[in-house]
Amino acid sequence: MSEHWSGERPRYGKTIKVDNGLKAKSKRGDIGATWWSRRFIEVLESFGMGGRLTRGRNYARQGQVLSLSLSTSMVIALVQGSRPTPYKTRIAIKSFTGQEWQRIEHALAGKALYAAKLLAGEMPADIETLFASLGLRLFPATQRELTMDCSCPDWEVPCKHLAATCYLLAESFDNDPFEILAWRGRSREDLLDRLRALRGTVRATVVREEAPPLTRCLDTFWQRQTTSNLHFGDPTAAVRTDAVLDQLDGVPITVGGSSLAGLLRPAYLSLKPEE
After folding, report:
1. Which residues fall within 8 angstroms of residue 268, CB to CB, at 6 or more apart?
2. What DSSP string describes 194-248?
3. Which strand (E) or helix (H) includes residue 90?
4. How many other C-beta atoms can be found within 10 angstroms of the C-beta atom of residue 216?
5. Is the pLDDT of residue 256 over 70?
6. In the chain, domain spans
7. What is the pLDDT of residue 52?
8. Selected residue with higher pLDDT from 265 and 273
9. How many CA atoms lie within 13 A of 37 on its CB side?
10. Rounded CA gap, 130 and 19, in Å?
């Protein structure tokens, strides 16, 4: 903290209430709806911060946090306390280097499920294992990896202002898991662009002409198709005589518990198309 009193806990006046502050969504119980936000709180509690974090839970729910911003390595918030001037809190963590992020991105791109989850805006459940395999940690392993300070006179870390910031930060992770990665030095846009490039998912859009509906080609359906009336495929390929039954795919018509299309298909396959 920026100020210290010798031996005695500073006395505070009544907390100044805020009308338009940032309020935690959770009204009671634990804060954090996703595994990654709960994991962040668990990590802080494992450092022996559990009791001190609780002091800021009401602050977070009452909306005493006026603003919160996250950038590479740094989270900064303004928290209204008992004094007219809001307190400034900071929570810093070391970001990964460029070389470390290259290793992370190649590892993520090499795991189809991980890449798919991230491209869908989700945090893979075992992503910490991937980081560990690279000798890195997504979440801090020790309290020394975090730097916390507040402009209030309380000497405890975290004070209730920092604790409120931690809870709001956890909920911001709920809303956007990429903020965890941004805190470590890689924004959502940059990470996803790199993953798409590494997995070769950036492709030109191909416009495909759709085949005409069956009702418009009944007269010629049984004839051998050519590129002029089929629009796609091999012009020398024979027409499947059961192709018309494909129109029933997904239609819940059954006879005696069996699919109507399945019952009719052997009969259609026995037919010979007109040459």
Report:
1. 241, 242, 244, 245
2. HHHHHHT--------PPPPPGGGSTTTTTBPP-HHHH-SS-TTSPPPTTGGGGGG
3. strand 87-93
4. 10
5. no
6. 35-199, 242-274
7. 76
8. 265
9. 23
10. 43
